[in-house]
Design a protein that fits this description.
The chain is an all-alpha fold. The chain is built from five helices and no strands. The chain has one domain. It binds protoporphyrin IX containing FE (HEM) (2 copies).
Length: 150
């Protein structure tokens, strides 16, 4: 089951990134031409929220049931000195949770606003910070020797 979840989590990165990028692009374009908040914008923002939450659930399962998360903290002495062990056990886990929380706060703030401009602004700001964190914390092959493409 862990292998299946790992493939799901790994390939899902592209969908999560795509939806967040589309939601930001839509918000930035709308801010520049003063478009009123519409259904497409809502679906993009909500789609990015739902995909990040699914990624969070699968990530939590991998963290607590797989070998590279909680298991490392409990069973491997000196894991903090080993960059690869520390990455999943600490860095990826904590920063991705912060990023997904930012997406959630951005969506929620946008929803509470009345004015279109403020709705788009919340998405543009919160989703952009989240996107940056998510991009940096993905184990890309060009950043980590243990990174994968899929
Ligand atoms: C948008 C957010 C996230 C993205 C894009 C993402 C992406 C990835 C990618 C690309 C991998 C590498 C998979 C591989 O080696 O084939 C990975 C591994 C992992 N992720 Fe995430 N992740 C996210 C959020 C999370 C969260 C929130 C958690 C924990 C709560 C988490 C826990 C893990 C764990 C434990 C692994 C290692 C699994 C293993 O090899 O046993 N991830 N993630
Ligand atoms: C550990 C797992 C999860 C946590 C901690 C979590 C947390 C949250 C929080 C705090 C909100 C409130 C946002 C607001 O103030 O409006 C929210 C909303 C939402 N979440 Fe999650 N969530 C999780 C998993 C999921 C999953 C698996 C899905 C879907 C497959 C999902 C879909 C949604 C949707 C659709 C909303 C509401 C959007 C709206 O207000 O219109 N979440 N979640």
């Amino acid at each position: 089951m862990i292998t299946g979840l790992l493939h799901l989590h790994s390939s899902f990165r592209y969908l999560v990134l795509l939806l967040i990028v589309l939601a930001i692009a839509d918000a930035v374009v709308a801010l520049s031409n003063g478009k009123a908040f519409n259904k497409t914008s809502k679906m993009l923002a909500l789609g990015a929220l739902i995909l990040s939450h699914i990624q969070l659930i699968v990530g939590l399962l991998l963290y607590f049931l797989g070998s590279k998360g909680f298991n490392i903290i409990m069973n491997v002495d000196g894991f903090m000195k080993d960059a690869a062990s520390r990455f999943y056990a600490v860095e990826h886990f904590s920063m991705m949770i912060i990023a997904i929380a930012l997406v959630t706060v951005g969506y929620s703030r946008s929803k509470k606003q009345e004015e279109s401009k403020r709705k788009y602004k919340a998405i543009a700001i919160f989703y952009s910070i989240a996107l940056l964190i998510i991009f940096i914390m993905i184990p890309w092959p060009f950043m980590k020797e243990f990174g994968t493409w899929f």
